[in-house]
Amino acid sequence: MNGVVSISPSIFQDQYGRNKRKLRISVTDRCNFKCMYCMPEHPEWMKKQDLLSFEALYQFCDFMVQNGIEKIRITGGEPLMRLGVVHFIRNLQQLRHKGLKRISITTNAHYLTKYAHDLKQAGLDDLNISLDSLNPDQFQFLTKKKLKPVLEGIAAVQSVGLPFKINAVLMKGKNEDQILPMVNWAKHQKIPLRFIEFMPLDGDQHWTKADVVTEQEILKVLSCQFHIQELKQEHEPARLYRLNDEYDVGIISTISHSFCGECDRIRLTAQGELYNCLFATQGLMLKPLLDQLITEKDETIRQILQQALYQKTSTYIWHKAEGFHRIHQHSRKISMHMLGG
Ligand code: SAM
Ligand code: SF4
Fold it and tell me: What does the pLDDT look like over 243-254, one tens digit per residue?
């Protein structure tokens, strides 16, 4: 074996040889928050009867795991707002012996005091928690909700022993003053933290490049307090930086440095549309096929998926991000609260 780890190709590979290993499932577009970088002012929620049932979702996950998917992330909207999500996670455990290695959730943490224990019992592996400010007024301004339940939710996952990371989206003039307070807070508690550049996926399409706090700007602020060493990027979207030789912070810089070359993700919306990229202009409606998956043979859907995923583009060129935004401002109806990040 000469020490080389062999990775089997997944059946879902795109034209640039990128195997699809990670599946993100949005289970609802609804959310109790109204983050200014995400939710439109007047959201038009998907109709409940149009959502994929958990039964159909489970069959889809089973099928995808048998075809090379190793990691499933449940997201939204706010995934903990969909009744039955904990039970769904418990059911997913049956896919471990077929190759499923990790089950994660991305949440705003508001409901975690209620669900942390059940999520742990259901076999969840880890969470990404969104938290963009430690200042209660600023948090309220950004999300239209209170900070306190979120901090209590974080304490709840700590007490049940579920691993988690914090993700913070930075917006120019809104919360970039949180860079040092958040790093100091997370470092003190040994919580992994990642800053995310604001992407043009906000519901009301107000994004401009001037609103983005770039990786370089974040590093400049960090350099006021820390000695910074860049670490080797390990097949993850976040670039890691070691601060004072003792704490690593991540930066996901989709705007200033795309990581498309390594992308191994597939996304499914709550009503069953497949997106092969966050920035794809169109999804592929799979719901009718997925409703059939429960009873029918899988070959048709395998071929349809293979074709859709094969066609994934090589990259989005982010210095043209404003161009992307202008072109799709009127055509693209999908935003982050539907795709789940
Ligand atoms: N409601 C959950 C939450 O907030 O964690 C899950 C869904 S949310 C759409 C998933 C992730 O997308 C969050 O970490 C959020 O901060 C991020 N996000 C939303 N809109 C974004 C944008 N325009 N640019 C960058 N990240 C964004
Ligand atoms: Fe809701 Fe998450 Fe979007 Fe905030 S980022 S509005 S919590 S879906």
Answer: 999 999 999 998
